[in-house]
Amino acid sequence: MTSPASAKKSIGPRELTIMMASLMALNALAIDSMLPAFPAMAQGLKVTDPNQIQYIISVFLAGTGIGALIYGPLSDRYGRKPILLIAIIGAAVFSLACSITPDFEMMLAMRFAHGLLAAAMGVLVISVIRDQFEGDAMARRMSTIFLIFMIVPIIAPTIGQMVLLFAGWRTIFDLMAFMAVAAAIWVYLRLPETLAPENVIPIEPHALAKAWKAVVLHRNAAGYMIGAGIVQGALFGYLNSSQQMFDKVFNAADFFTIGFAIIAIGIAASNFTNSRIVERFGARRVSHTALLTFITLGALQLVAAQFAPKSMPLFLLLLTGNMAMIGFIGSNFSSIAMTPFGHVAGAASSFQTFVRTGLAASLGAIIGQQFDGSVFPVALGFLCCGLAALTLVLWCEKGKLFTRPGTTQPIPADPRS
């Protein structure tokens, strides 16, 4: 097992970042590529309630949330690389199982299992990066990873739509399996072990409970972890009902892939910007500013839903802005929550991912199931989630926003000085 120092010699930071982003992108592909196929899937699986097809997304997310508890402890004991390889191959197998499932109930079971395996890509990417970096430097790399990762939501619905032009919706799952196998080969050939020997932790229930308890009792870790999950819940609520909104609200089903890409560009652009500014201004200052803007835009979405409910340009403008704010909030909240736990990065990351994803999936399912032929439920979800996250941040920071713990010198005008 090589140390982090030797790992850096084996693989460059740029390749490591791209590799980790690609692994996370597999999960985005497993969600977004099938959105254009929802009508065809509902017909093929004999789903009569159009809102029920959203569960294909929700159960996958539930699987990733529960699976998050598994891979941190396993990787802390056996290393990041072998656990990653097993999980990626397992995800490919269950993706193929989804492509041949005969009915909706079996599809949901296979999607849950797919998510259970795919959870490793979320947990262990954070652990690998935490093995190498910490604090604002970690936030910068995570933001770069999220930037590359967010290219997938921009193009994934188009990929799904292209598949539908030449084959049935089941082929989308075959494509996901092929890409997972390709990623597994890359990890096997190029990724060294990043877990330092001195950080190997035996799998002991008492030790796991101690690490999870440390996260729960740490004021900042718990608050930012839950806050990130709540904000992500608004994103999942939009995601679950996005195809229906373009189809039923705006009568623009053919515009869905373009509209979805426009909105996704907002979050990709913000992650790119965050990677350039977070080390200068600090994760708290950037994310707090974004959260207040998120709430403001959520309120404007609610007003627009009442007075201009059929205006797709206004809908795209406001939602793109809010997606951009999620880009600033997500990576920074996660980095703040992980900073105290470098010595138990795997266990802490798995528990935090479990809480964030489970909370987000639940909130997203609730918001999505409220779809009533209007954009009002999504707008209300964004505003309520933003206010709840702000309440948690104020509790974490004891009422003081925009702080930068550990910084005693003024921030220079030139980040190179």
What does this entry look like structurally?
By secondary structure, the chain is mainly α. It has one domain (14-191, 203-396): Growth Hormone, Chain: A. Helices cover 79% and strands 0% of the residues. Helix 4 runs antiparallel to helix 5 (80-100) and helix 5 (80-100) packs antiparallel against helix 8 (170-190). It starts with a helix and ends in a 21-residue tail after the last helix. The relative contact order is 0.16. Mean pLDDT is 86; it is low at 1-9 and 407-417. It is found in: Cell inner membrane; Cell membrane. Belongs to the major facilitator superfamily. Bcr/CmlA family.
Q: Can I get a quick summary?
A:
This protein has about 425 residues and is mostly helical. Helix content is about 80%, strand content about 0%.
Assign the CATH topology. Answer: Growth Hormone, Chain: A
Count the DSSP helices: 15
Query: Could you estimate the helical fraction of the residues in percent?
Result: over 70%
Class, according to the CATH hierarchy? Mainly Alpha
N-to-C CA distance: 38 Å
- Which stretches of 5+ consecutive residues score pLDDT under 50? 1-9, 407-417
Coarse structural class? mainly alpha
- The general outline is globular
The CATH superfamily is identified as: MFS general substrate transporter like domains
Integer count of domains: 1
Helix-strand pattern: HHHHHHHHHHHHHHH
Percent in strands = under 5%
CATH architecture: Up-down Bundle
Give the mean pLDDT: 86
Please report the total strand number as a whole number: 0
Q: What radius of gyration results from the CA coordinates? A: 20 Å
